[in-house]
């Protein structure tokens, strides 16, 4: 996902999900990413769909969905104060 300099992300934009408002992208290793490429305002005169089919470079990406590990079913609902 990074260039040789290790500081930027190169992504090929595959599609745009209009309902959830993210771009589905593939990095150079084949990894898939859901990314909002419009949030920083870098394309003020463009629609999100305009980026589909293009390759973009990002300085950084931040996760906006939490990823759970060690998930288990709780047998009894905990009491809330």
Keywords:
81 residues, mainly beta, 4-stranded antiparallel β-sheet, elongated
Question: In words, what does this structure look like?
Answer:
It is a single chain. The chain has 81 residues and is mostly beta strands. It has a domain at 9-58. Helix content is 0%, strand content 28%. The chain is built from no helices and four strands. It has strands spanning 9-17, 22-27, 32-35, 55-58. The chain has a four-stranded antiparallel sheet with strand order 3-2-1-4, with no helix packed on it. It is elongated and about 50 Å long. The termini are far apart. 9% of the residues are buried. The mean pLDDT is 84.
- Largest beta sheet, briefly? 4 strands, antiparallel
Sequence stretches where pLDDT stays below 50 over 5 or more residues: none
- Strand line-up of the largest beta sheet: 3-2-1-4
The SSE order reads EEEE
Helix fraction by DSSP (H/I, runs of at least 4): under 10%
Classification by helices and strands? mainly beta
Question: What global shape is seen?
Answer: elongated
Q: Write down the Rg.
A: 17 Å
Query: What percent strand?
Result: 25-35%
Number of helices: 0
Number of strands: 4
> On the 0-100 scale, what is the average pLDDT?
84
Instruction: Report how far apart the termini are.
Output: 45 Å
């Amino acid at each position: 996902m990074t260039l040789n300099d290790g500081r930027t992300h190169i992504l090929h934009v595959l599609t745009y999900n209009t309902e959830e408002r993210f771009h589905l992208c593939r990095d150079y290793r084949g990894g898939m990413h859901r990314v909002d490429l419009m949030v920083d305002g870098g394309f003020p005169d463009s629609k999100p769909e305009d980026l589909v089919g293009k390759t973009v470079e990002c300085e950084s990406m931040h996760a906006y969905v939490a990823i759970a590990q060690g998930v288990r079913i709780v047998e009894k609902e905990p009491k809330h104060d």
